[in-house]
Amino acid sequence: MSNESAFILIGFPGLETAHVWIAFPLCLMYIIAILGNCTIMYIIKVEPSLHEPMYLFLAMLATIDILISSSTMPKILILLWFDVMEISFNGCLIQMFLIHSLSAMESTILLAMAFDRYVAICNPLRHSSILTNKRIALIGFLSVIRGALFFSPIPFLIQRLPFCHSKMLSHSFCVHQDVMKLACADTTPNIVYGLSAILFVMGIDSLLIFLSYVMILKTVCGLSRKESLKAFNTCISHISAVLIFYVPLIGLSVVHRFGERLSSTTYIVMGDIYLFVPPVLNPVVYGIKTGKIRNKILRLFY
């Protein structure tokens, strides 16, 4: 390794000769994610009828998806196309912070969207007075502060560790669980803080989202069949976004905590799904399932 302070990113072991071709579908996914999320943001911005809490939160979600994709995909494409496997120590710390903090922000916005659906269905008369534009902006600001606050200690916890053996990572990007395993020192503080941060952010968010839908189901069950279907249909896109985000997150966490005997391919696939699938699928799901956005997209292109 030419740089002793660098980590080595892994591509697709055993498929090195096909790296150039593997990069093309990943590049296509990146382009779809950027174009899809930018289209959602543009339509919400120019269409006054979409200046409602649900769509404003969706614009925040699209912004986060663009940032999280752009923090990793360019480096991965360089790795696959030009075989540049090194990432500097500081570059790895920055990428690690961006991935974890942006994921926390996305989790917060998903929780805010669940609260929006709860108020819209369970207390519709007060929806506009509870979720004002000022409060929506405040929620967006707090999501940024919360993500940065909980995950800014992570790079400092990594920085204190010595790395005296292998610096080959299990992914083509830097995440805390992966880098921490390469240290030749006690990583108990990293394990405790990393797990605590995940539980206090994603854990609490997922619990509150679940409770929101319990209350929504309780309210919907008291409506007529037609009204209940109409009300619950407004939640389908959000439920899909929640599953698209949390299922890969949980899967990747389980693989890192308990998957010592799993193949390197499992780590790579789970990591790529976690980072690249939500930014691609979120605009597709909302574009298809949300009537207002679907109609505006059709008008935009036709």
Task: Provide keyphrases for this structure.
302 residues, 2% strand, 13 helices, mainly alpha, single chain, two-stranded antiparallel ribbon, globular, 75% helix
Provide structural commentary.
With 302 residues, the protein is an all-alpha fold. 75% of the residues lie in helices and 2% in strands. It contains 13 helices and 2 strands. The protein has helices at 19-46, 53-70, 73-82, 89-122, 127-130, 133-151, 153-159, 176-180, 188-220, 225-233, 236-258, 264-289, 291-301; strands spanning 6-8, 86-88. A two-stranded antiparallel ribbon has the order 1-2. Helix 2 (53-70) packs antiparallel against helix 4 (89-122), helix 4 (89-122) packs antiparallel against helix 6 and helix 12 crosses helix 13. The longest helix is centred in the middle third of the chain and has 34 residues, at 89-122. The N and C termini lie far apart (53 Å).
In short:
The protein has about 300 residues and is mainly alpha-helical. It is built from 13 helices and 2 strands, in the order E-H-H-H-E-H-H-H-H-H-H-H-H-H-H.
Report the span from N to C terminus: 53 Å
- How much helical structure, as a percent, in the residues? over 70%
* Unreliable residue runs: none
> What would the average pLDDT be, to the nearest integer?
90
